[in-house]
Amino acid sequence: MTSINYYVIDSCSLIELNRKYPIDIFPPVWQKIESLIESGFLVSPKEVLKEIERGDDHLKEWSKKQTKLFKDLTPRQIQIVQELLAKYPKWLNEDSMVPIADPFVIALAIEMEADAQKTLIETIKKRIVVSEERISGKKTKVPYVCQEYGIECIFLIEMFRKEGWVFK
Predict the structure, then answer these.
(1) What pTM did the predictor assign?
(2) Burial of 23 by CB count in 10 Å (0-12 exposed, 13-18 middle, 19+ buried)?
(3) In the chain, what is the straight-line distance between the N-terminal and C-terminal CA atoms, in Å?
(4) Average pLDDT of the residues in 72-76
């Protein structure tokens, strides 16, 4: 049985990627990331793009070009986000009543899990959330909610390892 990893990346991981591996110094890293995007194995909700657009750096410019990375919301994702916000109200920004991108990341992963494709070869499609957040205290964090929903959550560097990427 073949196993294929599909990654749903959070804004904090893209920000970390830009901070630790700037595109002008580490082009091979970004080429690998873009290859995953092009093949459809790395996705993110458009709400992540909205968070990135608040910045003013290379990541913002790069992100605008990644039309295959950022996915539109579906009615099912909206329903999942509503359920997540009811369960984890701390994800709502009290000033604007607009949720941060985190519940949208998890909603996309949940929807992808439920939307398994039929293939000629028996395949395990594994959805993995990529986030730099850590479980801490009583704060609602992506890894904690992923754990509650049975979704694997890893750091960016772990995605590199899972993909077998080595940069010399």
Answers:
(1) 0.89
(2) middle
(3) 32
(4) 95
